[in-house]
Amino acid sequence: MTDIASHPQPVTVLGTGQMGAALAEALLKAGHPVTVWNRTSAKAEALTALGAVHAGDVAEAAAASRLLILCVRDAPAARTVLDAIDPASGRVVVNLTTSSPEEARDAAARAAARGLDYLDGAIQAGAHIIGRPEALLMYAGREPLFRAHEETLRVFGPDTRFLGADHALPALFDLALLGLVYELWIGYLHTLAMIGAEGLPVGSFASAAGKIVDDLVQHFGALATEVETGRYDPETFGRLVDHEVISGRLVEARASRGVDAERLRHVKRLIDRRIGQGLGEQGFSSIFESFRPAAMP
Description:
alpha/beta; Rossmann fold; N-(1-d-carboxylethyl)-l-norvaline Dehydrogenase, domain 2
């Protein structure tokens, strides 16, 4: 058993909104001495009832623990808190505030200028699943710093990943994953509209949709490899010339039922463009070349 497991290190949680409170509660359940601070003191009361110590201000909270978990409303609020931490305190700040990649880099530079050890992170989970296997937590910064506190950070969820030195990576992954979720949701909702337009209960479609989505997930790694190598295997999802016919039928089927088909029209335009370039025998994933970023290798 490690020393951290035998003697859980004290941790301060700065910000006890819904997510910050869930983080503090997970630490308390794991046996960590926890100090909490929140701009609105009343939000910390439930945690003090569970055994947390409530600090009156950021300086007092930061003085209580070497490891500080920062989880506040937004990046400007996080900057205000960072500026209130004594730069000579030798504290380690793990910033789990939702931010953009640019804001993450700015916060890291701000922390470095103040002499603070700093990790940036992102949480892909609702507050209600903090500490459970479904939660995904991602971190970036100096790897030795992450490894030194990894065991404590895993209290928030066993699927805890170090992404690299660039502090912007967790925010980038977070936004990319949220974008994927939105794309899946809106696609699914449009298919429910198509089923419902026939007067069918949309729930009758759910299990079939789930089966297809589960199958698609199994191909994520292969698709990423195709994009990285530029070799688009038609065996994965068929040739573009095959999808030309299918996409046309889909657009017609949705539109004729009064369901918005603009997103599918966009897909068909991408397919048609590649075929017009003489690339119809390539696999479906080759449409990536139509929007490959200029900065991407």
